[in-house]
Design a protein that fits this description.
Shape: elongated
Number of helices: 7
Largest sheet: none
Radius of gyration: 19 Å
Number of strands: 0
Helix content: over 70%
């Protein structure tokens, strides 16, 4: 019983630590946005040059990630109060993830090192199988019906409808189509998959 409780507690910490790291890496992957610019024809959708869009995207990332930046300012887009509120809501979630990761990622590294040193990594086999299976299921669901999954995700995390951007009042959404978030979600799920499989 004691061993099982230890296995469960270690596994939960490691899973959450790996998930937090995967989210952090995905959110900060400006290169992922850059490769989507030509792929999703964002120049035509926004009327902006790639360098201008990268500037705006970097502004978003800085606002989401850096606690000392208290407001989001665009140079090439105008925004509604509703749109700004959604970015603020996302910022709170990202900050929470960063806070959790600040503690759990080092602990995860320590636990993995300790388990490996004592040849006890076999304790994680079952949890890893569960996470890998869930990751694969999410990836399959994304390919089958990402739009519905996207809606469920937002309804779960947000208590308002501010995430429903209107291109007429928040043209930044033309730079961030659903397909872009599909690739982000795929990258995050894949990262989590790789981290646990490794």
């Amino acid at each position: 019983m004691k061993l099982t409780l230890k296995q469960i507690s270690f596994s939960i910490i490691i899973i959450l630590g790996c998930l937090s790291l995967a989210i952090f890496l995905t959110v900060n992957s400006v290169w992922l946005f850059a490769i989507n610019i030509p792929m999703l024809h964002l120049v035509k959708a926004t009327g902006l040059e790639p360098t201008q869009m990268l500037h705006e995207y970097t502004q978003i990332i800085k606002y989401l990630q850096l606690p000392w930046i208290s407001s989001l300012h665009f140079h090439y887009f105008f925004s509604s109060m509703k749109g700004m509120q959604h970015f603020s809501d996302v910022r709170h979630l990202i900050m929470l993830n960063n806070f959790v990761g600040l503690f759990l990622v080092p602990i995860t590294g320590y636990l993995l090192h300790r388990l490996n040193k004592k040849s006890l990594t076999w304790l994680l086999i079952t949890p890893i199988k569960v996470v890998v299976t869930l990751s694969l299921m999410i990836i399959v669901m994304m390919f089958l019906n990402f739009d519905q999954l996207f809606i469920y995700f937002h309804e779960l995390l947000f208590r308002n409808n501010d995430w429903l951007f209107d291109p007429n009042t928040d043209p930044v959404i033309n730079m961030l189509p659903d397909t872009f978030f599909f690739w982000n979600a795929l990258a995050c799920s894949s990262s989590s998959f790789v981290e646990h499989w490794a």
